Amino acid sequence: MQRRKTLTQYLIEQQRENNTIPADLRLLIEVVARACKAISYHVSKGALGGVLGSAGSENVQGEVQKKLDVISNEILLEANEWGGNLAAMASEELEEIHPIPSTYPKGEYLLLFDPLDGSSNIDVNVSIGTIFSVLRSPDGADTTAQSFLQPGSKQVAAGYAIYGPQTVLVLTTGNGVNCFTLDREMGSWVLTQPDMRIPEDTAEYAINASNARHWYPPVTRYIDELVAGKDGPRQKNFNMRWIAAMVTDVHRILCRGGIFMYPADKRDPSKPGKLRLMYEANPMAFLVEQAGGKATNGTERILDIQPQQIHERVAVFLGSKNEVERVTGYHADSNAG
Ligand SMILES: O=P(O)(O)OC[C@H]1O[C@](O)(COP(=O)(O)O)[C@@H](O)[C@@H]1O
Ligand SMILES: [Mg+2]
Ligand SMILES: [Mg+2]
């Protein structure tokens, strides 16, 4: 019988044979993966575990927290507090950063996460996930919020877990993208899709079209052309998918290509789009680029953006290279005109 590689084996191989990750980063990833396993357990219990519905509180973004947002956040904080490899954490669900308490061993990495992405899907049993990003602290273990404000190109690891028909963990440490499926009986993550690649061309796009009246002209131009299909300038039909959980929309793109968009729009210029740069867009952009795709905010590469705040928002266009280049080019055309 052919044995498949587990996450642990894969990481040890990366550390020892390929020398691409240090031991402390390997251990950090293992702790995050263990926390995702625990979240998966709670998600799978649903109504039986009493985990559905609202927590009756709001997060820093003014969004109503679901019970699973809070549970997932606590699991990640607790698991990683004593992992020994971190200086501090930042989360969608926490206004301030969370330094590792002085009573615990500290490391020099920073962990950022969206503990539960796609919260509106929780109560209707549609796939949701956890997104994470790892940076090195420029200030060692003496970390402040400022230490986190590094462009996404500085990430040393990023990934996500999806709690869907299967629970999967998708990971990059800057050496390609690999997908591991949780074997519940064995309790291990098993490598099931090595070296994921995004095709350069696609006929599938994802955008929340209910916002169409608020879009800026380059987005309207691009989407109008896709919708016109064979009868329009693209002379090709496109299909649309929207899961309302970035994590799952991006997973589909890593599996079979496509373009995902959450543009800035005319409603509130202080909010460029809905998605958060540091724990949604950056990790996804790192994964997408590692799989041969592209990720921009319409004008520049997402991974080059210098963050000003941990919770800042950003417009997102990511996925199949040729489509992302086209819609980014439409932004350049409209700026030039
Ligand atoms: O369909 P909508 O409401 O426009 O927004 C969907 C987007 O909002 C998000 O769910 C935001 O994530 P959270 O659930 O972590 O707040 C994205 O994952 C998704 O792409
Ligand atoms: Mg999210
Ligand atoms: Mg969330």
Helix and strand layout, with pairings?
Layout: H1 7-16, H2 23-45, E1 54-58, E2 64-66, H3 67-81, E3 86-91, E4 98-99, E5 109-117, E6 128-136, H4 145-148, E7 157-163, E8 167-172, E9 177-183, E10 188-193, E11 204-206, H5 217-228, E12 239-240, H6 246-256, E13 259-262, H7 277-290, E14 294-296, E15 316-319, H8 321-336
Parallel strand pairs: 3-5, 11-12, 11-13
Antiparallel strand pairs: 1-2, 3-4, 5-6, 6-7, 7-8, 8-9, 9-10, 13-15, 14-15
This protein binds 1,6-di-O-phosphono-beta-D-fructofuranose and magnesium ion (MG) (2 copies).
The site of 1,6-di-O-phosphono-beta-D-fructofuranose has 12 residues, from strand 5.
What are the distinct ligands in this entry? Answer: 1,6-di-O-phosphono-beta-D-fructofuranose, magnesium ion
The CATH topology of the largest domain turns out to be Fructose-1,6-Bisphosphatase, Chain A, domain 1
Q: Percent helix among the residues?
A: 25-40%
Strand content: 15-25%
Poorly predicted runs: none
Using only CA atoms, what is the Rg?
Answer: 20 Å
Number of domains: 2
CATH top level of the largest domain is Alpha Beta
Largest sheet: 8 strands, mixed
Q: What is the ordering of alpha helices and beta strands?
A: HHEEHEEEEHEEEEEHEHEHEEH
Major beta sheet, strand line-up = 4-3-5-6-7-8-9-10
Specify the number of helices: 8
> What is the structural class?
alpha+beta
CATH architecture name of the largest domain: 2-Layer Sandwich
